[in-house]
């Protein structure tokens, strides 16, 4: 089955100190600051994204994820998804156009894992997005970590099967990989709505609505190394990496923003197609699935989240 | 609109000397030889493809393209496409399951540019495809040019607008980029059915059913360099490269198989989504679109084809 | 001052099981097996080395380093070094030509840290060394980890200042970097006889003649990633990495051969010249010097040696 | 034999328009502008060089090379070289300390090929050179083409054998590679005073004192690709590349500064040691030695110089 979702479109993250957050996301990571609105939220984007923004930072006294939002192929597809959700008695609501600048009406879905997922079909194009007439490969040389785009989120919650089921049945997502516990239950589900190895992942934990990490795409292993250099030079706290995931095969660094939200730079996963057989990791090999070189799970990976 | 086509699934190419062709595609490029059937056709695949084969070589006394074939999401989607084609009086026919080993029934479409496109929904999985239970990143270390998968074809013909129109209207392809002549007519159309910058391209020329090149995906610019080293070391004739396309932003080498069919190794194009604005190249900048570093078209590029 | 030593020429290492050792150094790391002599020693070399061999494995019931050997610029330079050593009452002896196949007479020096260093000026050229008439970039595609050459050793001992002093005064080595303890004493000394950031390193420990690691040169960070993939795929035990050293700036993986001797793959350190100012790491920053991304010393790094 | 020369230390190049030259060397290539002195000369350096400057631009109405200058290991070595030159009646003169800011006395040698070579032993250290106390891998992220250092020059002249002979006999250079004409005479001589594949090259031509190119070191093939992107984006005229030399095995782009002086970005040549056998290219294979992928010499390569 094909997904009616194009891609994860934006993420809204809570930060404790906006000035430090902007220094991190703009100056070190290299995102463009689109603007700061009157309600204090800061909007950012990566150089290769057409849409107006992909990262929204909201300053408050807690950390974590406000919203993960997905752009859909068409209003018809969104309406069909809404009907499917309502048929399942999933709590939904409409967020009016303009709640974020340049973003049309969104369907807000309260996911079984406690996460807020928004689905929308319209966002203004960025003024400084990729060129379209005789396009140069980029307008200005990519800065900082040379982030290409916002890529995916990994989210923590209890009933990950239920959240995955909604994405599959109502939005056409496919399971790319699963990690199992010793009893054969899902510990981790990696879902794709595209040709990426994952667009969202759910990790089982006795928690509700928590964020494991927000991930950003880099072009290559070379850029992973460059990002690590920048993190070390600029005193960004690295959680683990550079390393490779067995799951998705992605090359990765986990690190933290100044508020403690975990970020990831990610490159090199395989091309996924919905007719691919599912990849499954048994409990004994799951650590190798998470960290292919280390083959063990760092303590912080399972204990630190926001 | 979303495409009902998953990807270019395989290509059948005519070669003059099978022994030399296998030495090229298997030993230098590094594809796996799946088998040679009793009718003499050789079947090959790249290490990261799940399906049984993606390249078919047929020895005969001409060169060029027999078939470009696409795997679709579902039999229902194939049926819908068939109806849409028939409504347009496009010549189609059914190729029975088993005409190629492991491949189900195909719908054969005679394209306005003179190319034969097959569409199918079933191919056997390879015995040596990517692992699915606690999968290693690869079974055996990728050989030769470390080709990940068959990527796309570029095809030469007269009425490229008509062929593009069929793929868009009947199969949901999107135009990623176009190159224009001085009068504003399409000289080149790059079409995507996925998140790739192109899955097939049409180049306008007073020809029918001709092949410009068959392209194979590499992982990175590093692997482009490695492929160039191998070509030079093994006396493979390079047409142009390593270089970069402005169009698709792909990093590339064009080279020739021993029969004179042009191959490409390709890496690093952008991620395409069907809501992306079209990119357009005016006639004066089209050479830069083709070859971003050279900004001029090598003579062989426009005069050599099969 | 300039060094009269060209480079570390070979290393002789003790292994517990020759068959497993060869599987590691030849099949996984990708060195060429030059031959196994009648006394059981195995001789290997990397693809880009002109000399007959650079790694000698000796099977016995202990692990560690027998000899680190250096090739000098000329017999005159060797003689001058010998006189300088004798003037300092350093224990030396002559190892006759032919003790290793293809190697001329060696001057054996018993270093204050308990290591055996051999110095020589003649080794036969390899039959399969780099080409010299219209040379291809390599004869055959580099295999395995694509090791370019044997690079350096890091050695553990008590009086590292004394060993360094001999190399500086008698052989013209330069100190590239030093790591200090809280009292300002040398904890680590990195010495160069060339344009490499280090050709040998001494690490202070209450030990005698011990080996920390034998290091091999790779071409780039890309090849470091490839080596990590191979290690993970082939169940080679990784100690730490891929990561970067602050000291030497080298990109690195530490791993173990089947006997427990630590190996390193190394790429990307800076070009050193003997007029460069010394780089010094204070005790508090020394962990960052060792592991620039992690900024802490893994336990095994200081507790495991052979 | 070992060389008494450490490295090519700086180059003084004539440019037609200083403003455009600085825009090229500083803003696009990414060198630091150390300063512009009262006589109008501009001094630049690369991020990984300890010495005050390595590139000097002089605005005048001709292009080409004023001086190629080499830093030697010691005043004693310089004196010995001077005596050797005088014994051969080579025209020399002393350039006083301070002729360039921060540079000590230089011995100026008028080479048989018409080039002016300066040899010196003292230059002030840069204030923003590599860190030495707990050194970060760089102070600020490398800009532009991420040039590591000035690497070498290739020079055109008639009696290249005589110039090479002086460098070998008086300064201890070694020949790494030679290219021959059909009669077996030297067409090109590549000389090393270090572990680089070449520190200076002479190309035979019926010319005197001409410059073929000034070359700058990049870290890897990846950075060669990045440099090509920058050149294309910023309208820098590329002569040829990205490609690889057979000679030296270096990965390369040739391009032009705004005055028409040819620059090169260079990465990845082999490590040279003076005991390496000489590599020789016969006339028929010399084009492959120059351009390993193309195997033919571009017209501009042999007809454009300054």
Explain what the structure shows.
4 copies of one chain form a homotetramer. Chain A is globular. The first copy, chain A, is of the alpha/beta class. Chain A is built from 6 helices and 17 strands. A 9-stranded mixed beta sheet of chain A has the order 14-15-16-13-9-12-11-10-17. Chain A has an 8-stranded mixed beta sheet with strand order 2-3-4-1-5-8-7-6, with helices on one face. The first copy, chain A, has 2 domains: 5-120, 2,3-Dihydroxybiphenyl 1,2-Dioxygenase, domain 1 (Roll), CATH 3.10.180.10; 151-303, Roll (2,3-Dihydroxybiphenyl 1,2-Dioxygenase, domain 1), CATH 3.10.180.10. Chains in contact: A-B, A-C, A-D, B-C, B-D, C-D.
Summarize the structure.
With 306 residues, chain A is α/β, with parallel strands linked by helices. Chain A contains 6 helices and 17 strands.
Entry keywords:
homotetramer, 2,3-Dihydroxybiphenyl 1,2-Dioxygenase, domain 1, 9-stranded mixed sheet, alpha/beta, 306 residues, 8-stranded mixed sheet
- Strand segment count of chain A: 17
* Helix fraction of chain A by DSSP (H/I, runs of at least 4): 10-25%
Give unreliable regions of chain A as ranges.
none
Q: In terms of structural class, how would the helical and strand content of chain A be classed? A: alpha/beta
Characterize the main sheet of chain A.
9 strands, mixed
Strand content of chain A: 25-35%
CATH homologous superfamily caption of the largest domain in chain A: 2,3-Dihydroxybiphenyl 1,2-Dioxygenase, domain 1
CATH fold description of the largest domain in chain A: 2,3-Dihydroxybiphenyl 1,2-Dioxygenase, domain 1
Quick one: overall form of chain A?
globular
Q: What is the mean predicted local confidence, pLDDT of chain A? A: 97
Distance between the termini of chain A: 33 Å
Oligomer: homotetramer
Number of domains of chain A: 2
CATH class of the largest domain in chain A: Alpha Beta
């Amino acid at each position: 089955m094909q997904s009616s979702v194009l891609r994860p479109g934006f993420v809204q993250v809570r930060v404790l100190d906006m000035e430090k957050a902007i220094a991190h996301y703009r100056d070190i990571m290299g995102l463009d600051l689109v603007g700061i609105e009157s309600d204090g939220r800061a909007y950012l984007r990566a150089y290769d994204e057409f849409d107006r923004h992909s990262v929204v930072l909201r300053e408050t006294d807690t950390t974590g994820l406000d919203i993960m939002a997905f752009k859909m192929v068409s209003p018809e597809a969104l309406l069909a998804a809404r009907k499917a959700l309502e048929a399942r008695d999933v709590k939904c609501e409409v967020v009016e156009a303009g709640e974020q600048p340049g973003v049309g009406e969104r369907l807000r879905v309260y996911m079984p894992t406690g996460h807020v997922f928004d689905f929308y079909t319209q966002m203004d194009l960025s003024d400084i997005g990729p060129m379209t007439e005789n396009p140069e490969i980029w307008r200005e040389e990519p800065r900082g970590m040379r982030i290409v785009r916002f890529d995916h989120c990994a989210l923590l919650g209890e009933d990950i099967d239920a959240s995955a089921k909604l994405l599959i049945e109502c939005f056409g997502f496919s399971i790319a990989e699963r990690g199992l516990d010793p009893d054969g239950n899902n510990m981790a589900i990696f879902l794709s709505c595209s040709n990426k190895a994952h667009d969202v992942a759910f990790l089982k934990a006795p928690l509700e609505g928590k964020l494991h990490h927000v991930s950003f795409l880099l072009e290559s292993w070379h850029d992973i190394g460059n990002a690590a250099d920048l993190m070390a030079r600029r005193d960004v706290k690295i959680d683990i990496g550079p390393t490779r995931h067995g799951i998705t095969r992605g090359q990765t660094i986990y690190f933290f923003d100044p508020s403690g939200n975990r970020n990831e730079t990610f490159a090199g996963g395989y091309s996924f197609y919905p007719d691919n057989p599912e990849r499954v990791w048994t409990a004994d090999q799951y650590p190798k699935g998470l960290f292919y070189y280390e083959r063990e799970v760092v303590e912080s990976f399972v204990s630190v989240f926001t």
